[in-house]
Amino acid sequence: MLKPRKAVSAIPAYHPPLAGREGLRLDFNENTVGPSPRVLAHLRTLTAEDLARYPERQTIEATVANFLGVSREELLLTNGVDEAIHLLCQTYLDPGDEALIVVPTYSMYRIYMSAAGAEVISLPAGNDFQFPTAALRQRITERTRLIAIANPNNPTGTFIPADQLLEIACSAPGAAVLIDEAYYEFCGKTLLSRCHEYPNIFVTRTFSKAYGLAGLRVGVLIGDVDQMPSLRRVCSPYNVNAIALACLPVALADQGYIDGYVRETLQARARLEAVLKARGVKVWPSQANFILARIGSTKFESHAFVEQMRQRGILVRDRSTDHGCEGCVRITLGPEEHTNRLLIALDEVLEELSIPHGASRS
Questions:
Q1: Do 248 and 274 belong to one domain?
Q2: Exposed/middle/buried for 216, CB within 10 Å: 0-12, 13-18, 19+?
Q3: Most CB atoms within 10 A, among 151, 189, 244, 325?
Q4: Is 156 found in the same domain as 179?
Q5: What is the DSSP string of 316-354?
Q6: Is residue 95 part of a domain?
Q7: 99-156: pLDDT as tens digits
Q8: Which domain holds residue 328?
């Protein structure tokens, strides 16, 4: 009887709550208003011939490389950052190799690593989700072939300074070191200008967050010019669809739209953090477009909060099953109008759940 590989059978299923997402979408860290109006206008100009032929990404890769200040040979467009992670795992991991992550973090790292047959080593973050650079470096062995780091991290929003990331890359010359910068636009700090210092560093970016193109599934993988040919060998030549390729240059060209959206999001982040702190709710400083907050001490309290917000038309994400996140929820931020709706519902739900002003929640 046909059976899947043991490594695949052992992978924990990932079930994003995508069905029935009716309401203000503050649960998946998406752009809450959509892409630049110029992108929508360009979509309407696409023809039947544009859709009938296979997509060609090379020209658009050159445009994106120029935008990011890297060479075309160092860059690969991918079907979202998820494909970039998958390609790294397929290129560098053999069954029995070790792959390192620091938890809590993005769930798909573990899934793709496990699918490749690697042994996934999870190191816990430190107090207040501080990144355990020293502990991670000590855990690197000759079997370590991939290290994945989200920076800023999801779901905590914490940021790791460049020098620490370079120390890790230096300590693991035989491992690919992924620096996932999905939330770069909201922190403004990147390793991209220094990744040439070590040939084992890879940087990813996405156009699903600030750019509002999550539905088109397009991301970028950047790495050493001598490493990228191997990644291209395991990548489909038609991995990014024609619509995404047509829209991406238009989205990149409208940086005024991106700057405005990011500015409003950062203002919203500060507003929400101030409100939660005033209510005595534990929050962690975030460098992303979301905030992680500890609503209670158990998953039952966080679940009740999520449900009460949903009933008021606001979707937020329960993260209580993540390591160290018991009772926590993650709330995405957006423009002022959406923030006003969020804060009205938030105040009602906190009152209903009897979370008093000034309560101490650690």
A1: no
A2: buried
A3: 151
A4: yes
A5: -EE-TTSTT-TTEEEEE---HHHHHHHHHHHHHHHHHTT
A6: yes
A7: 999 999 999 999 999 999 999 999 999 999 999 999 999 999 999 999 999 999 999 9
A8: 17-30+256-352
